[in-house]
Design a protein that fits this description.
6% strand, mainly alpha, single chain, globular, 59% helix, 10 helices
Amino acid sequence: MRAWKYRPDEVKNLLNPAFCGRLIYGTVAEYQKNTKRDFPFPLVYLILPLVLPQSIRGKINSRTQLVNWVQRHQELVFNFGRRASDLVEITNEAVEFMIQTGFIKLTDNGELTKEIIAGTLSKTKHTDPEVTECLNKAEHVGRWFAGAGKVETIYVSLGVRP
């Protein structure tokens, strides 16, 4: 990963660890709320490639099961594995940031859990509609993952190898 001073402004703004970490936090929190279990770490690498591209984000609907959604929108998940691979380092930075700030924790079992701390993260403070949409869709992804079953099933559905 390039040092921050060498990254283009677009990358600094869109893919900064705080914003991407907030998206991951929303997915983890929603997954935990729906399953009462900690979030499987391998799924963290699927969040950003689903939520960041507007073409995919705009079609996300957690009322439709993930497998059914993928079947209806195969054109959106074409080359999804490559997109996910391209965002691994950004995801790692975001997870590290969220762990360092205390909003999520890596458990002894290698899963992520949302920490209960004062000053929880708000969705309503953001006035930009695209940011709000990203935050909402990250939660939809959490519900998808909660209802989809095993990690392997989710990866296979999206055409990605764990």
